[in-house]
């Protein structure tokens, strides 16, 4: 019997997420306030007894000049993805609800892990000239149930999409991430999992007198100055300062530890800064920024180590470094970032990626054409 899907209150949504070990920071109500160009809705799945058994944050983006929407559930929804009747009982009622809200297309990101590669497996793959991508290397573990879910989605009309940027309609989250497992490990265990370079750099920063402090809303302009310098150096388009101010206000109002800001100081100079997000037992390193000055005192390693220790103290089961490249070729400028994250003891993790369901094929095709021209 299909579940009943309807709008729920913010309080119902938060209570449901609080009862779970993990949910994406993009699947809590406050994330809708971070994205003012999208209309947000908290969605609930109810069983025949009226119990709330699933929840999701839907972001609706209007199609130019039409009252029709792209409905997006980033890294969600939070439902029983392994249910044998996933499509009929969980997803079909969701599609019917979203269609009733004017959606012409639905995009979602199942929070389901398909494969994992240990730090050693990633290091060996980078050194192997025959391995050009992560999938060329033997995974440490492969979840058959996740591959079965992907098959069921394809058979029911869902289409897997490649990750994109977040500008306009090209909403997309990384399919490959790097995560450090914390469950059942002490800080000493986690420190032993760092590679030699990491341990050496943390010691060097401590000896040089680098101090890591937690900042607040008033420190966001300092973070932003470093972030803008990082964007120019690494050739990406930075988000504006008001985005981070809105993010801080919305997330910390929902929970005081939902978002933290860390700053690395040395002799009165701020050399690096980063934001950290927490939902339940999952902690994310979200945005990082640093200056090119005084790199020799290793502020980034020191800051990340402090964030990892604090995440462990908060009860984290996983410390998530977010997106990584799946390309292992030396010519890829993102390979250094992969090495940095894996050096912290991080596993490479592949999720099922993002999936589209065109409710109106004509409008969905028009959106594809619109995006191709941009």
UniProtKB/TrEMBL annotation:
GO terms for biological process: cell wall organization; peptidoglycan biosynthetic process; regulation of cell shape. Gene3D superfamilies: 3.40.630.30. Keywords: Acyltransferase, Cell shape, Cell wall biogenesis/degradation, Peptidoglycan synthesis, Transferase. GO terms for molecular function: aminoacyltransferase activity. Belongs to the FemABX family. PANTHER family: LIPID II:GLYCINE GLYCYLTRANSFERASE. This is Peptidoglycan bridge formation glycyltransferase FemA/FemB family protein. It comes from Streptomyces ferrugineus.
């Amino acid at each position: 019997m299909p579940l009943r899907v309807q709008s729920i209150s913010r309080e119902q949504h938060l209570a449901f997420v609080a009862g779970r070990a993990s949910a994406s920071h993009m699947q809590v109500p406050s994330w809708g306030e971070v994205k003012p160009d999208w209309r947000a809705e908290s969605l609930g799945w109810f069983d025949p007894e009226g119990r709330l058994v699933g929840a999701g944050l839907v972001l609706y983006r209007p199609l130019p000049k039409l009252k029709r929407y792209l409905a997006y559930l980033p890294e969600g929804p939070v439902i029983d993805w392994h249910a044998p009747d996933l499509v009929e009982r969980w997803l079909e009622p969701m599609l019917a609800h979203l269609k009733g809200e004017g959606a012409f297309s639905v995009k979602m990101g199942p929070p389901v892990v398909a494969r994992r590669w240990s730090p050693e497996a990633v290091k060996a793959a980078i050194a192997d000239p025959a391995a050009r991508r992560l999938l060329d290397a033997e995974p440490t573990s492969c979840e058959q149930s996740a591959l079965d879910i992907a098959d069921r989605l394809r058979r029911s009309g869902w289409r897997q999409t490649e990750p994109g940027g977040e500008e306009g309609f090209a909403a997309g989250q990384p399919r490959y991430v790097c995560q450090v497992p914390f469950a059942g490990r002490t800080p000493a265990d986690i420190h032993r999992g760092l590679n030699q370079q990491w341990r050496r750099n943390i010691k060097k920063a401590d000896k040089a007198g680098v101090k890591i402090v937690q900042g607040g809303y008033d420190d966001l302009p300092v973070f932003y100055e470093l972030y803008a310098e990082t964007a120019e150096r690494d050739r990406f388009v930075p988000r504006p300062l008001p985005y981070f101010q809105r993010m801080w206000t919305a997330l910390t109002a929902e929970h005081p530890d939902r978002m933290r800001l860390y700053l690395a100081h040395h002799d009165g100079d701020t050399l690096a800064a980063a934001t950290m997000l927490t939902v339940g037992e999952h902690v994310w390193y979200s945005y990082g920024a640093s200056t090119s000055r005084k790199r020799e005192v290793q502020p980034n390693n020191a800051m990340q180590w402090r964030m990892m220790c604090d995440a462990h103290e908060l009860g984290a089961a996983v410390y998530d470094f977010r997106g990584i490249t799946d390309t292992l070729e030396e010519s890829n400028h993102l390979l250094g970032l992969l090495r940095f994250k894996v050096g912290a003891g991080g596993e490479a993790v592949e999720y099922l990626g993002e999936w589209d369901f065109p409710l109106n094929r004509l409008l969905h095709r028009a959106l594809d054409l619109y995006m191709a021209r941009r």
